[in-house]
TrEMBL record:
Protein name listed in UniProt: PorP/SprF family type IX secretion system membrane protein
InterPro entries: PorP/SprF_Bacteroidetes (IPR019861)
UniProt keyword Signal, yes or no: yes
Native source organism of the sequence: Panacibacter microcysteis
Annotated Pfam families: PorP_SprF (PF11751)
Signal peptide: 1-26
Domain of life of the source: Bacteria
Length: 359
């Protein structure tokens, strides 16, 4: 019975690994509360918020109900600086995206250190065009001693199986390092004093980095094209409706579509607890959705400069039977602020507030 349980867990682990790998091709490592890690959506979304500085930390724990959990840690920072170019007032945002992902039994890990720059250019009194770039180092590695390979399964005389403790296969390379480059563009506008919106597009893995562990195998990371949109609308004095949407599609060097794509969207409603403008307290609740993968209830608490968010993935993919609908838990902590000596410099940057009170 214990052996059968072990085999079932091994099979489940393999199935989940294949599922997650296919998803990763389309959207790389990501978070359910994707709006809190904007650089993973589009480098040109850096700085599209009200304030001077934003720091966000995210933690995700997935598939713990089925196998060894997949854990993801994310940390991002954005700082805005007013600049002048040829006599025009622009906003330059410097950003940094840190990511650490450890997946399953093999401890397949991905570590990402990606600086970013985004320049917001005014095109009218209430509209901005933002162009962003992000590039940095990536490392992928795995632990072969944690794998159970085919030569470890031995058939016994009675037809049962024995799992040997070690494999005879030798891995000469268990890690790969590469440089990755992404770029994007975003248009943001204020329709009126109550409605802000943006839409944009991005291209990830512009340089098609080599990611293979075997030198004589040409394995590259295909380009990923993204389309992003967001809407923030004040529906009453104390309530705000927020909508997000992202599409990702994987493409080859010649931009031929390879048939791997993903779509995610969110609908949230924020309610301001305090009626005072300088006392930014509120609560946000809603639901997020990843096509053919998960339905995700989410709740956020806003305490002036800090926001805490939590969500849980309800799995609706083909693995829902094995997972019993249990996907992953996620927690985020965000900090936003204005520098005291620049209180007026950045208020003209138009962007969806994403749960923030309008000033």
């Amino acid at each position: 019975m214990m052996f059968r349980t072990k085999i079932c867990r091994i099979v489940a682990s393999v199935c989940i690994a294949m599922h997650v790998y296919a998803a990763a091709l389309a959207q790389d490592v990501g978070f359910s509360q994707f709006y809190d890690q904007p650089l993973l959506r589009n480098p040109a979304l850096a700085g599209i918020f009200t304030g001077d500085v934003r720091l966000t930390a995210s933690y995700r724990n997935q598939w713990q109900s089925v196998t060894v959990p997949y854990r993801t840690f994310g940390l991002s920072s954005e700082i805005k600086f007013p600049v002048q170019v040829m006599g025009r007032d622009l906003t330059l945002t410097t950003g940094l995206q840190l990511l650490r992902d450890v997946a399953g039994t093999s401890e397949f890990s991905k570590t990402q250190v990606m600086p970013a720059l985004n320049l917001s250019i005014p095109v009218s009194a209430n509209s901005f065009l933002s162009v962003g770039f992000m590039g940095g180092l990536m490392q992928q590695r795995f632990d072969p001693s944690k794998l159970v390979l085919n030569d470890q399964f031995v058939t016994n005389s009675d037809g049962s199986f024995t799992v040997l403790p070690f494999s005879g296969q030798v891995f000469t390379n268990t890690s790969v390092n590469y440089f990755d480059l992404s770029t994007g563009i975003t248009y943001s506008t204020s329709v009126n004093e109550n409605v802000d919106l943006y839409f944009g597009a991005a291209l990830f893995h512009v340089n098609n980095p080599k990611v293979g562990y075997v030198e004589d195998k040409q394995i590259i990371l295909n380009k990923k094209f993204a389309i992003n949109a967001g809407l923030s609308a004040r529906v009453s004095d104390r309530d705000e409706l927020i909508v997000y949407g992202d599409y990702f599609g994987q493409h080859k060097k010649d931009f031929e579509y390879v048939g791997i794509s993903s779509f995610q969207a969110g609908l949230l409603l924020r309610h301001d607890i305090s009626v005072y403008e300088d006392d930014d307290k509120g609560i946000t609740a809603g639901v997020l959705y990843r096509l053919d993968d998960a339905v995700i209830p989410v709740i956020q608490l806003h305490l002036n400069k800090f926001t805490v968010g939590t969500s849980y993935d309800i799995n609706i993919s083909k693995l829902s039977v094995a997972s019993q609908l249990r996907g992953g838990f996620e927690l985020t902590l965000s900090f936003k602020s204005l520098f005291q000596n620049r209180q007026g410099d950045l208020r003209s940057v138009v962007c969806p507030q994403f749960g923030g009170r309008r000033k």
